[in-house]
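Record type: monomer structure entry
Structure origin: computed from sequence
Chain ID: A
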Amino acid sequence: MTSQPLFLAVLFADISGSTRLYDTLGDQIARAKIEQCLTLLDGIARRHGGEVIKTIGDEIMCGFPSAAQAVEAAMAMQQTMVDGNGGQRIRVGLHFGEVIRENGDIFGDAVNVAARMAGLAAADQIMTTRQTADSLPPALRASIRYLGLTTVKGKREDIQICEAIWKTDAELTMMPTTLPGMTRGGRAASLTLNHAGQQLTLTPQHPATVVGRDKTCAMVVDDPLASRHHARIELRNGKFILADQSTNGTYLNQDGKTIFLHREEIPLTGSGIFSLGHNSKPDAPEAVQYCCEY
């Protein structure tokens, strides 16, 4: 059976903090809340002309004929969560491109990029690519904020990423007066990492990196408790965000406090250390030192 290529806007919506729900509410109640949320997202996607391809745990994957329909659905999803769904929050990522349909599922580069956009999004955020944003009608393009470049696995070149702004409060209307990645004094934000003789600096031109045990990581931490791709650091909305994506979690020592992250994220400030999989002293060989300048 020959696969037929087609173009779709692929959207992923992920329930933020679902792991904590299971911890605090128990399996049955947490699962019921997640299913209720996914049902709401399913209905919104269909009302905006989308097709629900599948659900994966606490995530829904949809396809839309156009980027505009996908963005409008994403905004409606976020608004519905804010208007009242038991305090649930979602992260949304989308991208328009060519896909291959097989046995009711879709595959291809556009799916991979859309999933990456969802991975970049924070709670209450909609992330997409500039390629997708540029295809939107003027009314929707006005809601786009351009954030800079990031690396996407499998892509030879960095891609430009954007945020679709769906809120209209005063804080958001003021934010564009400071460009992403720039301080209010006009200096470029930077983050320097040091570990075991390795040094890496993130800037608006090179805004993201992955730290972990795998040799393909930009900063390699050779520790048996570290995951292969343990944590990601990226410049987002003018702040460097440390996002744990590991099995054993990340310990951050910042401002005199120790914070444990597990599939969570936090902005980095000032200087400090973080360690992968276990808590470490500042002078421990497995610790990663960091220093932010905003």
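Annotation 1: The two ends are 55 Å apart (CA to CA).
Annotation 2: The chain has two domains: 4-177, 190-293.
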